[in-house]
Specification:
Keywords: Amino-acid biosynthesis, Arginine biosynthesis, Cytoplasm, NADP, Oxidoreductase. InterPro entries: AGPR, AGPR_dimerisation_dom, AGPR_type-2, NAD(P)-bd_dom_sf, Semialdehyde_DH_NAD-bd. The structure is a single chain. It is built from ten helices and 13 strands. Helix 4 packs across helix 10. Helix content is about 30%, strand content about 20%. It is globular.
Length: about 300
Amino acid sequence: MSSPVVFIDGDQGTTGLLIHERLRSRTDIRLITLAAAERKDLRRRAEAINACDIAILCLPDAAAREAVATIVNPAVRVIDASSAHRTQPNWTYGFPEMTPGQAERIANASRVTNPGCYPTGALGLLRPLVEAGFIPGDYPISIHAVSGYSGRGRAGVEEYEGTGTANAPSYQVYGLELAHKHTPEIQQHAGLLERPVFVPAYGAFRQGIVLTVPLAVRLLAPGVNGATLHACLARHYAQSDHVHVLPLQESCVLKHLDPQMLNGTNDMHLSVFSSTEHGHVLLSAVFDNLGKGASGAAVQNLNLMLAHQ
């Protein structure tokens, strides 16, 4: 039996390069990409995507939709790393740990949409708690996240590693129009009734994310506190290989969160911090925006799909 053919369409961006790096030495698949001269040749790209078993799309949204539209071979399965299909009902959301049975749904799907980097952390924290009824669906959620500059793609890498690095800001908050494209994705998959306020930022480090969600205990379900929320998350991820919940006794002595601590891995660490005196809880997620937030997640989904190829 021949090895499954995996085609990476768009392997020159930050996500595509890392996916290629993670896959190129594997012997259980046959990895194909297009030569530089063929990358903008629509006919050649259509030929390649229809000749593969699984296509991984690392493209801008419009180009990803265009690529999917060229598929005429019903056997072709797709992992889309763009945001083009993340809220589409006929696409399977590619966060295996999000809810029981999600890994199986991904394994059997023909169309999988990789989560965004920020939504991975937000949903990792919120979905189990909303689903359990501990956070009301109409809670006024606010989310703050700081990512490494690679989250901007090649433009971010060029700004901080190219010729003009002396002028690159050490920190910048963006999305001030409060219309970031990840917000509908977070609202839909977290099960929120109201649109959350999402405030992202970039720091002067290459990769890694710290994402936080502050909560007021008085607005949660009756009787719910930080320990309740922590116990729910710990139960939800107890069998997970990649998502880990920091024990409460460890978070009590933690003084800071390092966004780079999990770089190069496909892991995500979740924590719950609480102040009983003030009635406040802070949820946090730390992970690599190019790992669990992008290329690592794509490879994890690919492995699930290959097991059912």
